[in-house]
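Dear Dr. H.,

I hope your travels went smoothly. While you were away I took the liberty of generating a structure for the chain from your last submission, since the lab meeting agenda had it listed for discussion. I wanted you to have the full record in hand beforehand rather than looking at slides cold. The sequence, exactly as received, is reproduced here:
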Amino acid sequence: MKTKIHACLIIWVGILVFSESVLANEPIEPIIPATEINPAQVELGKKLFFDPRLSKSGSISCNSCHNLSMGGTDNLKTSIGHNRQQGPINVPTVLNSSLNIFQFWDGRAADLKELAGDPVANPGEMALTHALAVSVLASIPEYVSEFSKAFDSGDIDIDQVTTAIAEFEKTLMTPNSRFDQWLAGSKQAISEQELAGYKLFKSSGCVACHNGKAVGGNSFQKMGVVEPYQTKNQAQGLVNLTGKESDRFRFKVPTLRNIELTYPYFHDGEAATLSEAVDIMGRLQLGKQFTVEEIAKIVAFLKTLTGDQPSFLLPVLPPSTDKTPQPKLFEN
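The corresponding predicted structure, in token form, is as follows:
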């Protein structure tokens, strides 16, 4: 019996050492599920994430644009907001967003909590006010009870609302991709073509910006380094935050996690396919003209970054009451 246990320990230690050696030599790190979370706030935030009553029209929720059945995006060039307004920029995925250095393409939100409050009051998105959002929630007894349990407070405020949504979004991690399995030592997790794509991804310089756990999201880079990027989109990037001309057209590098699910690509959504995106990035950012075969290899690698998608029972939202402010559909 002791011999069997000893043998198992040797195998386990061997796998661990091999895994660490693989990880130490790779610029990409595996996704780790969130652990330090507040369960009561997560459950409350989940309901708020799906609740369209946080919009002026009563028809738009966080999940409308960050659809958790579609990779945390809406697969549109730019999202549709209040009164069918077309949004100014492509919606980044909410999956693994806690790994971002800042939120939004231009980094105007420092964290998930700040991110959660912006769309609610944005006239082009959910078009409510923070005060009215709180009034809606405070008019619903079940929400009052849940906020009390989650925050040990008798009152509801926007700080609690955004904290709860952010706490839920922290759980939207996608671990266990086939590439993560390869990083952990499972050689059979990816194919020869996918491994060749990864090697090309590294040797071409893609990892200079796309690295770490999120394979991106940790820096701002200019769109169009070798060649100017031609677009009709009016987004200017980080310059909106800093006022520095050198930051014009510098955008947060997007995560490549689950990238096969989050099309179309770039801040303007103009690249419809992964193949097109890889071709453009090669030419504009690296000065490389990838062949069709090379693009196919890199795309094959990128698809190994799709991890386990968030899975849970859809929340049952508490009903409104006679005191709940009524939605104003198609009103400015």
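Two observations you may find useful: The mean pLDDT is 92. The beta strands are 220-222, 250-252.

With kind regards,
E. W.
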